[in-house]
Amino acid sequence: MRVLNLSTGFKPFDSSLEEIESKSFLFSGGEVHIKLQDAAEEVLVSARLNDSNEVMKLLLAVDALRRNGSKTISAFIPYLPYARQDRVMVGGEPLSIKVMCNLINSCNFEKVYVFDVHSEVSLALLDNCELISNYSLAKQVLSNHTDYLLVSPDAGALKKIYKLAEALAYHNDIILCNKVRDVSNGKIKQITVDQDDLGGKDCFIIDDICDGGATFVGVAKELKKRNAGKVSLIVSHGIMSHGEAELVDWVDHIYTTDSIKNDSSDLISRILLADLIEL
Fold first, then answer.
1. Are 93 and 129 spatial neighbours (Cβ–Cβ below 8 Å)?
2. What region holds the Phosphoribosyltransferase domain (predicted)?
3. How many CA atoms within 13 Å lie on the side-chain side of 116?
4. Global confidence as pTM
5. CATH at residue 251
6. What share of the chain is helix, strand, coil (3-state, %, to 5)?
7. Structural domain containing residue 12
8. I need a surface site. Which of 62, 181, 193, 210 has the fewest CB within 10 A?
9. How far is CA 64 from the centre of its chain?
C-alpha cells in the first residue's frame, strides 16, 4: 500500500509507507487541477477538506488514481465538513451533510476514516465509514495528570464523555454544564454548572470542535467562579476562527490536533494525528 497526502504539511500516516507525489494548482478560471507522479494498486489518501477546492482536489485525485490503475482506495478525512449542518432547520435550506457525504460516496472508497466526527448522522450517511474516537488524544493529554475533573460543556457532549470516561477508567465526577440561549437571536445568555464547589481541582473541558470559542469562555468563567483550578480544553478539531483573544483570559491551555491546521502557540498545543492513530 502507498499513501497520497493531498494537504500541504499534513502527513498523518506511518512514515515507513511510501508516498505518491502529486502537484496541484488552480487554473486562471478557478478550476482545480492535480497531477499524480506515480500510482499503486492500493492507496490510502489523506485530505483536510477545509474548503471547496480541497473537496474538489480529493474527487479529482481519486479519478486520477483509478485511471492510473488503482484498485483499492481508502480515505482519511480527519475533520468531516458540514457535519454540523446535519438537519434542515427551515424550509429552503439544504441537508448539507447529505450533499457532502454523497460526494464522498461517489468515490467508492474501500473505507472512509473520520476522526471524532461531530454528528452521528454523518456515520449513517457515509458508506464504509470507520470512526476514530478521541480516546488516544485524551489519554495522551491526561497521562501526566491526576485527580482532575472532566467537564461536559453542554448536554450534547455528555454521551461521548461517558464513553471516554470508561475508556480512561476515570472515576471522579463528570461536571455537566448547560447552555441557555436567547430564542430571538440564538446567543448564549446563561451557562449553568451542576456543582457549586469544584475543590480547586484542574478541569478539562472535552468536546469535538472549538470554532469561535464563546461556549468554552463562558464555561471556563463559570468553573472558575466555582473554585476550579486550571481550566483546559481538549478538542479534536481546533478551528479557532476568532484566534486566541477571546480564549486566553479564561482558558489556561488548549490541546487539539492537526486535523485542521498546524499552528501552535503558548496557549495551543497541536498533537499530531500521526502520533495518535494507526490505520
1. no
2. 137-261
3. 29
4. 0.94
5. 3.40.50.2020
6. 25, 30, 50
7. 2-132
8. 181
9. 27
